[in-house]
Amino acid sequence: MQYRRLGQSGLKVSRLCLGTMNMGSKAWKPWIFDEKESEPIIRHALDNGVNFIDLADFYSTGAGEEVVCNVLRRFGRRDELVITTKVGYAMSDDINARGHSRKHIFNAIDASLTRMGMDYVDIYMLHYFDTESPVEETMAALNDIVKAGKARYIGVSTMNTWQLAKILQVCDQNGWVRPINMQLQLNCAFREEEREMIPFCLDQGIGVSVFSPLARGILTSDLQSNRNKTDLFTQEMYNDQASKDISLSVAKIADARGCLPSQIAQAWVLNKPEITSMLVGADTTEQFNSALAALETRLTEEEVYELERNYTPCDLINDYTSGKRIPRYARPAQAPFAD
Question: Fewer CB near the terminus (10 Å): N or C of the chain?
Answer without folding.
Answer: C
